[in-house]
Amino acid sequence: MFNSLKVVPSVISIKDLSYSYPGTTSPALRDLSLTVKKGEFLAIMGPTGAGKTTLCLTLNGVIPHSLGGRMRGDVEILGMNTRNYLTEQLATKVSIVFQEPESQLFCMTVEEEVAFGPENLGIPRDEIRARVDWALEVVRMNGFNDRFPIHLSGGQKQRVAIAAALSMRPEILALDEPTSGLDPIGKMEVFSVVKRLRDESNITVVMVENESERVAEFADRVVVMNEGAIVMEGHPRHVLVDEASSLMKLGVLPPQVSELSHMLETHAVTARKYSFLNIEEAKSGIGELLNQTRRK
Amino acid sequence: MATRYDLYVRQNTPVHRLDARVKLIGISLGIIVALLISNLFWLLAYFVVSCFLIMLTRVSWEKLSHVVYPLMLPVTIMISILYPLTSPPVGQPVLLDFWIIKITLPNVLTGLAMAVRIDTMTFVSYVLIFTTTQRDLVRALEHFGLSYRYGLLISSAFRYLPAFEDIINKITEAQKSRGLDLQKAGFMRRIRNYIPLLTSTMITSLKLADQLGIALMSRAFGASSKRTTLTDLKMRPIDGGILGVLVLLFAAFLAARFWLQVFL
Amino acid sequence: MEDQKLSTRIQVEQLFHKYEGTQSPAIDGIDLRIKSGEFAAIIGQNGSGKTTLVKHFNGLLLPTRGRVLVDGVDTRKRSIAELSRLVGYLFQNPDHQIFCPTVEKEVAFGPENLGLSKEEARSRVDDALELLGLGPYRSAPPTMLGLGQRRKVTLASVVAMRPEIMVLDEPTCGIDHKGSTDLMEAVKGLNERGHTIIMITHDMRIVSEYAHRTIVLCRGQVLLDDTTRSVFSKPEVLAETFLAPPQITILGQALEDYGIRRDILTVAEFYEQVVQRMRG
Q1: What's the number of domains chain A is made of?
Q2: Is the separation of the CB atoms in A164 and A117 below 8 Å?
């Protein structure tokens, strides 16, 4: 069990979290516990109503401070218990990018939008300028400074939203189904930014995403939620391939190639174990299988 | 796409470069001047000056016509006609005396003066609107004491106006596709037909406002009482100079008006 | 029934459409024919003209040039209200349609606009609610339901008008897999009953599972228009507009040398192919 001497700190530490929205009886979150390590890329999957968005909102204190309701258990962000800190204070540690560009882009120009967060924090002008330039560069929207966000494409809008979150220089970036409703190009644009963040920075990313092919590509760890609780957790291969059938029962689709490897396993097509997380693995696996058949 | 709401004219004239605060003060003074002139001749002269100022903004006739035709022309005509018709007949000579209608020349002239005054004030205001971005306008107001919260409120209104136009269009299309006929005869029926549109718009707006609130908080809105800004208005020496000139002109006008009794 | 199947319901002839104040046309020359009982998917990037095209089917937009015929009649000769009897349109955002205090009233809105008798309207509402499994939510306020349910409510309200042609604008957007399947199975049921379905979507899996025909739009023109199988077997063409077939189809294409087909649409099909190959 002694893997390394280096202990990676937890940046998010959730213990026995339960939450009900005001005026409701059934809890949106039930006894949920979760730890996220620094630099980790965590994907959260699950059917509608599982509580994924609710969970995101507990990360920066919107729950419980702004939405009220009944919360039990604790959420600690970098050692700070969210009960004891205002959203404004937590916003420097955690930034959230929401699904709808329309309601999270409210300024007249891209530049103002990205500067909004740092301006609120009272950061000196030079520093704001540096952050805006950096954030726009990361999302590859430099040069769009004077554009009216509403005239941009869906993918561009969400990238501006990500830049606006990044300019707060958070240690944790949470993305709540950021590509929902985008066209294929828009999805590509957003995922390439996500990939860049993953590869080039050590920012901790928590992404709610049901596109399992993307989750397979990016995530270090996957958590599956259902009805307010975490029902599955582990490495993408474990959740998407090994547990493909349980996943499908929950109403979440694994990658098609994983469904395929699951089918091969179930029907005991050969004695071998098949585990396909992506196309490359499926190609070589099936190729091998068919080669063997040829040789017979 | 709903750029009607963006009245800003993208040019780079000296008026554009003038500091927004100076323009705001200038326009306010200009409006006060218009209100203090009663003489038709002087009003017409002032109107010509305002036309000249509008030309300085290099606004295209196309854009200007959106202001003149739907807005100014009807108002001008209405006031010129309604005032002499509806106000108590004053002075000589009487131009028309028919049944209950009595129109006197002084009344006609007063009516015209009112119309010209409004046109002048409109043009003067548009000098500001055509040459100042919404951001600078709101900044100027903030410099004059408007709190940031209200400044953001105003900016958001500008930002979301086209979005609401879009939403209302979509809602109208959606309901039309279900057979809602907005052209149907019958006054009451027509009013009732707008209820689906209003209700859907309200619901969508409320949801939007809710999400917007969460987004604002997540970006630390209200975190620090000492809010900084990335860009700000910069007062150049020439801006100060022009402000000085405007104030002097205004003082001279006041003197002429009240002391020398001109412009009446 | 055979005759019905062959009749053309929607005919698009040399269609051009340019929005006021824009430079380039949104639709730049499209000819299309949609027959009775078809289940067609329209795919393409945003801005390719998908929504613009389908809005011509119920008269929300009229051609700048060219014409659109619905059941042989030029759409210019009919009002939107009239066309709504023939062509139902499901909008992407259900909140743009929902305004009634109960699901029942919401679904009844369309039939009422058609001027039906109360009994007829009620029976249509009951039918629609049952078809979509909304019976238990009859008296619930639609705004309190989740997105998937709200979509079903708007679909039910379209279905209650019994239009023979239905246009669905991204019906599964934002809903999870279970909700999507629920909805699409209901749509499939409608198609089996004879309704012509035209669906705009970005979800290639849904396309491969439900649509018989796929129309690919790019910059206001038709790039591909064929059976779904045929369209997805041409990834190079799809790539021109940055589209890709479902993962399993791509896998089939990657293993072409091993005798796997280029036009596989589902995981089950792929599995069958592998088993077949193995049997030799």
Answers
A1: 3
A2: yes
- Average predicted confidence (pLDDT) for chain B: 86
B85 and B108 assigned to the same domain:
yes
- Which residue is associated with the tokens 């005032």? B83
Domain end (from A148, A168, A188)? A168
- By residue range, what is the domain housing residue B200? 146-218
Model pLDDT for residues C212-232, shown as the tens digit of each residue: 999 999 999 999 999 999 999
Q: Does A261 touch chain B (CB under 8 A)?
A: no
* Domain count of the fold of chain C: 2
A276 within domain boundaries: yes
- Given CB atoms, is A111 within the 8 Å cutoff of chain B? yes
Asked whether A210 and A90 are in contact (CB, 8 A), the reply is no
The band of A68, judged by pLDDT with boundaries at 50, 70 and 90, is confident
Prediction pTM value: 0.89
Q: Under an 8 A CB cutoff, do B176 and C91 touch?
A: no
CB C119 within 8 A of CB C111: no
Higher pLDDT, C277 or B215: B215
Same domain for A85 and A196, yes or no, is yes
Number of domains, chain B:
2
Q: Tell me the ipTM for this assembly.
A: 0.87
In Å, how far are A257, C27, C64 from C20, measured between CA atoms?
46, 13, 10
Contact B173 C60 (CB under 8 A): yes
Tokens 């996943």 map to which residue? A247
Taking alpha carbons only, the member of C92, C235, C75, C241 closest to residue C174 is C92
Q: What is the pLDDT of residues C113-147, one digit of tens each?
A: 888 888 999 999 999 999 888 989 999 999 888 88
> Which chains are adjacent to chain A, needing at least 3 Cβ pairs under 8 Å?
B, C
- Domain of residue C266: give its range: 246-280
Residue B31 counted as domain residue: yes
- Residue C205 CB neighbour total at 10 angstroms: 21
Give tens-digit pLDDT for A168-204. Answer: 999 999 999 999 889 999 999 999 999 999 899 889 9
